[in-house]
Amino acid sequence: MDGATLQDRIYRGLGTAARAIGVACDAFRPCGPNDPIAPANRFLRLNAAFNAQDPHFEKATPYGAAVWYGVFDAAYTRPGDYLVEQQSGAASFIAAQQRLLPVLCVRAPRIVSFERAAAPVLAGVNSYGGVTQATATPLLRHWPASMIAAGGIERSDALLPADTRLGSFTVLLPAWPGVTLRPADLMTDDIGRTCVVSVAELTELGWRLTVRQAAT
What we know:
With 216 residues, this protein is mainly β. The chain has 2 domains: 3-107, no CATH class; 110-213, Thrombin, subunit H, CATH 2.40.10. The chain has one helix spanning 3-21; strands spanning 23-28, 42-51, 67-71, 82-85, 91-96, 103-107, 110-116, 137-149, 168-173, 186-189, 194-203, 206-213. The strands form 2 sheets. A 6-stranded antiparallel beta barrel has the order 1-2-3-6-5-4. The chain has a 6-stranded antiparallel β-barrel with strand order 7-8-9-12-11-10. Strand 4 and strand 5 (91-96) form a beta hairpin. The radius of gyration is 20 Å and the shape is elongated. The protein starts with a helix and ends with a strand.
């Protein structure tokens, strides 16, 4: 038996298991930098189950766990696709479909958008050149992503009792061709937080970002 046939049978077996234990999901494939789970991007309906990197489904997911194993027929999907559970609305994106290995998925409960501050257009004195939404260029809009506290807490040098402590987060989301995220890009999420990218790492699994929450 060749590798392609073996992989096809593995996916077929995963699909059979998902029909027995999974839930109905819609699969979405982004077609641009905006709104990857817009209705127009839905291309498939399938059953899927997710476990906490435990194929035997014997352990629950702990705090801070973004990565799950997906059980579904992955013959029709590819990394970067989103799966959205029809009943709960929970979204996950496929990070990797490596041969003979479990399908790696990332839970994506937050909706994030990214913008970049406009560069100065004239020599000499210009208007404020920091990151502001009024002058920023949109990069990605409304992408479901994982956003987990990274533990890095900063505060101002004043060290006053009422100083606001600023937290950091690790953000995971798929990459989109032609869009490169950089430090100092502005990120906003669906619950009103504003953050600034401090580290942007493009991996084989997508973007892994460290963002710092901005006081607003």
